[in-house]
C-alpha cells in the first residue's frame, strides 16, 4: 500500500478526524485546555460501556484458554504494543501467575518499548515471525491491538494465529476496522476524534488501557485469583507486598496483624493458603489439598 492509499484510508478513521471541540485549543488558557481534555476523556468510558457484551465474550474465551494451559498474547505496535506489555508484566506480581501466562509483543521488540521503531509496524511478516518465535500453539489466545485498526504488524500476527487454530481477539478504536476481519472476537470502541488530531496515545490509548484492564482482571477473577475483591494470589516479593499480603489476610478473615503474620509464615508466604488455614482451622498441608480440590477457588471450599 503506497502513501496515497494510506492517506485515503486514514481519512475514513474517526481517530484521525478533526475534533471540532478542540479546534482552537492552542490559543486557550491552560485551564480551558485541561477542561476540553477532561471532557473528551469522559467519552471513553461511555464508548466502552456500549461494548461490554463482546468484551465479556473475550474474557470468557481467555478464561477457557488459560484453564487449558494456554497463554494470553497481546500483539501491537507503538502505544498499543506498550499498553499490552504493561498489562502483561503486571499480572505476575498481582495474581501470582507465571510471566509466560500473559505475554506482550510489540513491533520492533523490547527496544521499541522505550524508543519508537515505527517502520516495523508496516511489516505483516514481523507479526508472523514474533508469534512463531514464542512457539504459539492452538491453546493460546492472541489479542491484536491497534487504535487505527489497520496496523499490518497486528494483521500479520492475527493471520498466523488463525492459521494454527488459535482463538483471536481484535481491539480497535474505529468501527469496521481492518483487523476485525482477522479476529474471532471483535472489540471496536468508538471514543471519537482525539483532542490533538491523530494523537491516539490519548483517548484511544485510554480506551485500550481500560479494556486490557477488564480482560486480564476479569479473567483472573474467573480463575479464582480473587476472593471477595481481594487479590489473594499476590506475590510477597518486597516489603510493600508483604504488608499488603498481611492486610489481605486480615480483611479476608478478620484476624489481627500478629495472627495474619503468623499464618503467612506458616503458609510459606502463600496468602491464599493462609486464608484457607484460618477459615478452616487446618494445617498448611490440609489447606493445599483443599485448594487443589477446588482448583484454587476459595469460595468452592466448604
From TrEMBL:
Domain of life: Bacteria
Annotated catalytic residues: 90 (proton donor), 121
One Pfam family in the UniProt entry: GKRP_SIS_N
InterPro entries tied to this protein: Etherase_MurQ (IPR005488), Glucokinase_regulatory_CS (IPR005486), MURQ/GCKR (IPR040190), SIS_dom (IPR001347), SIS_dom_sf (IPR046348)
Pathway per the UniProt entry: Cell wall biogenesis; peptidoglycan recycling; Amino-sugar metabolism; N-acetylmuramate degradation; Amino-sugar metabolism; 1,6-anhydro-N-acetylmuramate degradation
Domain SIS, chain residue ranges per copy: 62-225
Family matches, as Gene3D superfamilies: 1.10.8.1080, Glucose-6-phosphate isomerase like protein, domain 1
Single GO MF descriptor: carbon-oxygen lyase activity
Catalysed reactions, semicolon-separated: N-acetyl-D-muramate 6-phosphate + H2O = N-acetyl-D-glucosamine 6-phosphate + (R)-lactate
Biological process, per Gene Ontology: 1,6-anhydro-N-acetyl-beta-muramic acid catabolic process; amino sugar catabolic process; N-acetylmuramic acid catabolic process; peptidoglycan turnover
Keyword Zinc: no
Keyword field: Carbohydrate metabolism, Lyase
EC number: 4.2.1.126
Further facts: A lyase-type mechanism (elimination/hydration) is suggested for the cleavage of the lactyl ether bond of MurNAc 6-phosphate, with the formation of an alpha,beta-unsaturated aldehyde intermediate with (E)-stereochemistry, followed by the syn addition of water to give product.
HAMAP family the record matches: MurQ
Subunit structure, as described in the record: Homodimer.
Sequence similarity: Belongs to the GCKR-like family. MurNAc-6-P etherase subfamily.
Function as written in the Swiss-Prot or TrEMBL entry: Specifically catalyzes the cleavage of the D-lactyl ether substituent of MurNAc 6-phosphate, producing GlcNAc 6-phosphate and D-lactate. Together with AnmK, is also required for the utilization of anhydro-N-acetylmuramic acid (anhMurNAc) either imported from the medium or derived from its own cell wall murein, and thus plays a role in cell wall recycling.
Protein name, as recorded: N-acetylmuramic acid 6-phosphate etherase
Species the sequence originates in: Aquella oligotrophica
Gene coding for it: murQ
Amino acid at each position: 500500500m503506497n502513501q496515497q492509499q494510506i492517506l485515503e484510508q486514514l481519512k475514513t478513521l474517526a481517530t484521525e478526524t478533526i475534533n471540532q471541540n478542540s479546534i482552537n485549543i492552542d490559543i486557550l488558557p491552560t485551564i480551558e485546555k485541561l477542561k476540553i481534555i477532561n471532557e473528551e476523556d469522559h467519552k471513553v468510558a461511555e464508548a466502552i460501556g456500549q461494548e461490554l457484551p463482546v468484551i465479556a465474550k473475550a474474557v470468557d474465551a481467555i478464561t477457557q484458554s488459560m484453564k487449558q494451559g494456554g497463554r494470553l498474547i497481546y500483539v501491537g505496535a507503538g502505544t498499543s504494543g506498550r499498553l499490552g506489555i504493561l498489562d502483561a508484566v503486571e499480572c505476575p506480581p498481582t495474581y501470582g501467575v507465571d510471566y509466560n501466562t500473559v505475554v506482550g509483543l510489540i513491533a520492533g521488540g523490547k527496544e521499541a518499548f522505550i524508543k519508537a521503531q515505527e517502520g516495523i509496524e508496516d511489516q505483516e511478516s514481523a507479526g508472523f515471525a514474533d508469534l512463531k518465535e514464542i512457539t504459539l500453539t492452538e491453546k493460546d489466545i492472541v489479542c491484536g491491538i491497534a487504535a487505527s485498526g489497520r496496523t499490518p504488524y497486528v494483521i500479520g500476527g492475527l493471520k498466523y494465529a488463525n492459521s494454527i487454530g488459535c482463538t483471536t481477539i481484535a481491539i480497535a478504536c474505529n468501527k469496521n476496522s481492518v483487523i476485525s476481519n482477522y479476529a474471532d472476537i471483535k472489540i471496536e470502541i468508538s471514543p471519537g476524534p482525539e483532542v490533538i488530531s491523530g494523537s491516539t496515545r490519548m483517548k484511544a490509548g485510554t480506551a485500550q488501557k481500560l479494556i486490557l484492564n477488564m480482560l486480564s482482571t476479569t479473567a483472573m477473577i474467573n480463575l479464582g485469583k480473587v476472593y471477595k475483591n481481594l487479590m489473594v494470589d499476590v506475590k510477597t516479593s518486597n516489603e510493600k507486598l508483604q504488608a499488603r499480603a498481611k492486610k489481605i489476610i486480615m480483611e479476608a478473615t478478620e484476624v489481627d496483624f500478629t495472627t495474619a503474620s503468623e499464618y503467612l509464615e506458616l503458609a510459606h508466604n502463600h496468602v491464599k493458603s493462609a486464608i484457607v488455614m484460618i477459615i478452616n482451622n487446618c494445617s498448611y498441608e490440609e489447606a493445599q489439598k483443599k485448594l487443589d480440590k477446588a482448583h484454587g477457588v476459595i469460595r468452592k471450599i466448604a
